[in-house]
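Human: Not sure, check this?
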Amino acid sequence: MKHIFILFLLVSALSCAQEKRPIAGETEFQREMNADFKDATKSPLKDKDRKKFKGLDFFKFDSTYVVKAAFVRTPEERVFKMKTTTDRLPEYVKYGILTFELDGKSYQLNVYQNQNLINKPGFENYLFLPFLDNTNGDSSYGGGRYIEMRIPESESVIIDFNTAYNPYCAYNEKYSCPIVPRENYLDLDIRAGVKAFKKH
């Protein structure tokens, strides 16, 4: 009887250890993403996907995709309604243009500001950088990816493509996600950030 009790304790300890596995990820960004996706109060995953969730697939961190970009503000831009995957049309303004080099070539991306979000505490200087690249529909999500930024205090800013993440629509169709403007297409492979989600 004593042996059975000890075996029971061992099995219980093992199952608890499995439940409390350390959060997967090789960078702080990856660990934070995985923690949020495991958390039922924050996760965009459907319940059935979250219960089987072990961690998102990421491209391996690559410092090549941490680039310094020239930042030029575009103060004369008008507010426009950005298309989404639903009928929702949030108001954005093109806030600036980012110019940077990758693989010896120069590229540009527009960065946007959500006009509703700037009224929320903590988001006053939040910028939205959506982009498309040649990995979309293959190793990354077909609809493109997003990067979060803050308004820089100087005329340059660091873009870290290793922090590129998928719209919530990649995980659950109930979400309404901004559609990446076509002018933010990069004609190269951005092999950094979150990969396409494989549903189980």
About this structure: Residues 25 and 84 are 30 Å apart (CA to CA).
